[in-house]
Amino acid sequence: MKKKTNNKKLDLVSMSDIDSNDVWEILSLTKKLKAKPLLKSNLLKNQSVALIFAKPSLRTRVSFEVGVTQLGGKSVTIKMDEISVGIRENVEDIANVLSRYVSSIVIRTYEQKQIEDLARFSLVPVVNGLSNEEHPCQVVSDLFTINEIFNKLSGLKISYIGDGNNIAHSLLIGAALTNMDISIATPKGYEPNKHYVAIARKINPKINIEITNSPLNASRDANVLYTDVWVSMGQEDEMRKRKKIFAPYQINDKLLQVANKNAIVLHCLPAHKEQEITSKVFSRFSEIIYEQAENRLHAQKAILIKLIDSK
Questions:
Q1: Catalytically annotated residues
Q2: Could you tell me what percent of the chain has a pLDDT over 90?
Q3: Is the whole model's pTM more than 0.85, yes or no?
């Protein structure tokens, strides 16, 4: 992970903060933590972790709160409207004050820059719990889930079908770091940000990165089919328009027929069945999808351990 020049701390603001060795170190630790949930149970003894939420959360909030407890610490959950970052108080002051109270800060918000600024001024590690541009905690746990099933990542093909959103961005970098081919199929005008495509290609020029408007082509020979909601938080006013545009971008039996015969389906949840995924396909792969959700807990504990131990 990249070192901070001011205080030598490590952050996970973006998937690009991690190199390939870091990924495998975290995945290895995740496996140990899943087998023994109380491993490192004294890491955060008499310490606290701040959880800042501007967006609603089920998996991120609960998995971090439970994870911090299992590491022997206490989570302090703060709603964004209670501190109004950048409005009631500027980011620099919030970061400096919180750093004197807690061992690390997890933030789930809209603007990626807000997380970057918080990390820049914070004296303790900052973790991106989700922004409009990235969702690294989700993708680290996704990589763990895929490796858990296939016992490898290198050489696999992951196909993401839907909106070129924060999941797509972090998956691009995650695939590059683990030597997986990746194909992303979106409607025209909804492709992932070219910035993230460029980062992935720079990290690993050897893998195949395909950005297409054809879900069928993207799904061919895929080992993993992955989807997310068509309407993310903050886009509710676009719901009717998006449902029409994204209708052909549904994971269904047709896509599974052209994927690898042993392909799995992942979904970061919440799922809107009969929109981005059919109820039939979801039901078939529900145990894997729920395991994927559980793995958030173990992977996020591994991330916290990595960051805090590196201080």
A1: 108, 135, 138, 228, 268, 296
A2: 88
A3: yes
- What burial class does residue 103 get, using C-beta atoms within 10 Å of its C-beta: 0-12 exposed, 13-18 middle, 19+ buried? buried
- Position 7 in a domain: no
3-state helix, strand, coil in the chain (%, to 5): 45, 15, 40
Helices 286-309 + 136-150 axis angle, to 10: 120
Residues 99 and 159 in one domain: no
Q: Are 102 and 48 in contact (CB under 8 A)?
A: yes
User: Which residues are paired to 42 by β-bridges?
Assistant: none
In this structure, are residues 104 and 304 in contact, taking their beta carbons and an 8 Å threshold?
yes
Hey, which residues does 128 pair with through a beta bridge?
107
Residue 158: what are its φ and ψ, rounded to 5°? -110, 135
Report yes or no: 91 and 118 within 8 Å, Cβ to Cβ.
yes
31 and 175 share one domain: no
Beta-ladder partners of 51: 77, 106
Q: Is 130 contained in some domain?
A: yes
User: For residue 141, how far is the Cα from the chain centroid?
Assistant: 7
> Which residue is listed with tokens 């992942």?
266
78 pLDDT above the threshold of 80: yes
**Domain containing residue 205:** 138-292
Which strand ranges, in their side-by-side order, compose the sheet holding 126-130? 74-79, 48-53, 104-108, 126-130
Write out the DSSP string of 88-112.
Answer: TB-HHHHHHHHTTT-SEEEEE-S-H
Q: Give the 3-state secondary structure of residue 170.
A: helix
